[in-house]
Amino acid sequence: MNYSTLKKGLAVSFVALMGATSLVNAQDAPAASPSSAKVFGGRGQYRTWSIGVNAGVLSPFVAIGGSNDFKNAEVNLGYGLSLKKQLGHAFGIEGNIFRGKISGTNKDMPGGVANGVKSFETQLGYAADLRGVVNVATVDFLRRENSVNFFVSLGYGLAAYAPKVTAANGTVTDWKDKAGDNHDKTYVKESYIPVGAGVKFKVSDRVAFNLGYTMHFVDGDNLDGVYAKGTTKDKFSYGYAGLEFSLGSKSKPDLEWVNPLALMYDELKDPSLRQEVEALKTRVSNVEKSVEDLKKDSDGDGVADQFDKCPGTPAGTAVDGSGCPLPKASVVAPVSSNVTGFEPIQFEFNSSVLKTESYPILDKLSSGLRENGGKVTLKGYASSEGTAAYNLKLSKDRANSVKTYLVNSGVNSSAVVTKGYGEANPVASNDTEEGRIQNRRVESSRN
Fold it and tell me: Among the listed ranges 49-53, 228-232, 288-292, which one has the minimum average pLDDT value?
């Protein structure tokens, strides 16, 4: 392995890391003024796109070990670009493209040769992939804004490369421009699986410093130009440092660095929210008071003060729906059974809403029931338009509308029985509109 190159690469990475850490530690002061972002406000309130540049070292070996066609790895320069879309606080999709050189030797083998070859050097024309990136932890999650994120990634990509192999006798075989089945392609192309991990430091509101390591598992055994192990497949690694730049409006926070706990805390402590809650409590209290006022009946005649046109009616006086005494001749006398004493209540087409013109009839019925007791049966009917099942339901709804009016006026609910008969028992022909109007009705019979 070329340890001189490796030392230089590690030294550069260490210096950059120290610089980034210093910048992060310098941010101990509170972050910029809180944004207007809300916990459940959606991605539109954040910056979610970023672009990155990186450089580092490429090696034919990976950290987890495994078999290799060459004994000694060399490290070489690699460089690339990335574009990421953050989909949530902890997950994003990232596209990567990079290139460089991968090489290795057998210098530590007897005679510097293994499998008939001395060394290889592969030009990586490009490697492009799409990865899912997960933020797995942050060392200062309890701070208002995160400054350090650890991440892991997994994806799928395509690499184009040209291996050059030096044989034991010094013969060099270069596959560039000789790749493919017909040996007329510039590069060999193989798919690969990238598996990576790293740490990210927030340098400023727009810039982050990344340190990462990715292992690439190639779907082929031709990355180094040697088919030495039969069924084994090649692999390579990329250790890098880079900068990532957040794109979008400066007024929006970067979704990747947002601390959702801090956002939730801010929302719970937001003075304006508390004011809204207090205002809502006041409105609810006013509504409750209005309801109580509507129910208030000072003279006990069964008509609320809100609608009582004759307040102060003596106890026991029979009144109409407006709270005024009924003429003595209008008071309904007690009846014993099956006496129909009131004209039908009419309804509009396809409606169970009471007409205002029916109120006087209903007020008289209500007054008689409240003063004289007894029960009443309400029979609902419908005209012949529509299906029989629908008309049956409509007739029941009409009878229940009348019952609701009577109960709201003070009649005991148990004294009112409702029945629906649908299109049955028409009082007029359903062949004419005049007849159908008469059939849309509720009849009442006292028991």
Answer: 228-232
Residue 163 CA to residue 179 CA, distance in Å, equals 10
The rounded distance, in Å, linking the Cα atoms of 208 and 86 is 14
- Say yes or no: 246 and 386 in one domain: no
CATH for 221: 2.40.160.20
Of 215, 250, 269, which residue constitutes the final position of a domain? Answer: 269
User: CB within 8 A of 38, min separation 6: which ones?
Assistant: 45, 263, 267
Give the three-class secondary structure for 397: helix
Q: Can you give the residue range of the structural domain that contains 440? A: 332-446
Q: What is the pLDDT of residue 197?
A: 97
Q: In the chain, how many domains are there?
A: 2
198 in any annotated domain: yes
CATH of the domain at 344: 3.30.1330.60
The helix or strand, by DSSP H or E, that contains position 93, with its residue range, turns out to be strand 91-105
Nearest Cα to 205, choosing from 264, 143, 247, 235? 247
Structure tokens at 186: 């510039």
Is the domain of 257 the same as that of 357? no
pLDDT > 70? residue 331: no
Read off the pLDDT of residues 6-64 as tens digits, 9 standing for 90 and up: 444 444 444 344 444 433 333 333 333 445 566 566 778 889 999 999 999 999 999 99
Q: Whole-angstrom Cα distance, residue 363 to residue 346?
A: 15
For residue 360, the SS3 value is helix
95 within domain boundaries: yes
b/e map 282-314, b = 16+ CB within 10 Å: eeeeeeeeeeeeeeebebebbbbeeebeeeebe
Does residue 238 form part of some domain?
Answer: yes
Give the Cα separation of 205 and 33 in Å (integer): 12
Of 269, 298, 322, the one marking the end of a domain is 269
The answer to the question of residue 83 being in a domain is: yes
Strand 441-446 to 376-380 pairing: antiparallel
Q: What is the pLDDT of residue 2?
A: 46
* Whether residues 186 and 260 fall in one domain: yes
- What pLDDT does 290 receive? 73
Asked whether 212 and 198 are in contact (CB, 8 A), the reply is yes
pLDDT at 337: 32
Strands (E), 138-277: 148-167, 172-174, 188-202, 207-218, 235-247
Q: Please indicate, yes or no, whether residues 265 and 338 belong to a single structural domain of this protein.
A: no
Pick from 47, 58, 126: which is nearest to 87 by CA?
47
Same domain, 97 and 177: yes
How far apart CA 413 and CA 417 sit, in angstroms, is 8
